[in-house]
Amino acid sequence: MNYLLEIDNISTAYGHSQVLFGVNLQIPQGEVVSLLGRNGAGKTTTLRSIFGLTPAYQGHISFMGQHIEKLTTDRIARLGIALVPEGRQIFPNLTVKENMLAFATNRNNSKTPWGLEQIYQLFPRLAERASNMGNQLSGGEQQMLAISRALMTNPHLLILDEATEGLSPLVREEIWSCLRKLREQGQTILVIDKYVEKLIPLANHHAIMERGKIVWQGNSEQLAATPETWQKYVGV
User: Fold this and answer.
1) Is residue 105 part of a domain?
2) Could you tell me the CATH number of the domain that includes residue 3?
3) Could you please report the per-residue DSSP string of 117-133?
4) Residue pair 145/100 in contact by the 8 Å Cβ criterion
């Protein structure tokens, strides 16, 4: 199988406190992978290791066949990995349009790259708010903008960290609908979220983390058939 991203036996620590213990994860080209687990399981640290923000001291991370574990964060991003961070982190003093144009590039050399017109078709509400400042948006609109900003880089890999956290059910459904459309277009996605029932039909593969380790991996059919597994590791 052609893997876009491969995490091979990485271990990561904050100072003397080890957080990840031999994590392995593969993301196939053109597929959606979910990373599940309770708060503190190591999901965000895994993302930080991918981006070089908290480098792994052991193991390797390969993206498009290139080892990236020793690269700087900006070089990793320029290879075509885009993050929709937890907390959104949009620029409050820029308009919706400016927030997106500030990130516009074509990192995957697409013949039909994401631009403002395509974004406004995906999220019509952003077209209505194009001249509003970032701090004038609702939480749901900020999340739409954070996703759109990442798409404007035209990434090979889109990573979403808690994309639906704190949103109303109606807005959450808009986000899920957006991710389904992206999947249909062939966008490779890694998504961290807690709504397993939504992730089972969305993602192709799933990995569950507990205490810094991957404790289960499988496809959607396998995850759906073993609700006791995800209720054990993901349920409140």
Assistant:
1) no
2) 3.40.50.300
3) HHHHHH-HHHHHTTTSB
4) yes
User: How far is 45 from 59, CA to CA, in rounded Å?
Assistant: 15
Q: Measured between alpha carbons, how far is 24 from 11 in angstroms, rounded to an integer?
A: 10
**CA separation for the pair 211, 98 (Å, rounded):** 40
- Structure-block tokens of residue 121: 């078709």
Residue 72, domain extent:
1-79+198-236
Q: What tokens does 119 get?
A: 């974004």
What pTM was computed for the model? 0.94
pLDDT tens over the chain, length 236 residues: 789 999 999 999 999 999 999 999 999 999 999 999 999 999 999 999 999 999 999 999 999 999 999 999 999 999 999 999 887 788 999 999 999 999 999 999 999 999 999 999 999 999 999 999 999 999 899 999 999 999 999 999 999 999 888 888 999 999 999 999 999 999 999 999 989 999 999 999 999 999 999 999 999 999 999 999 888 998 75
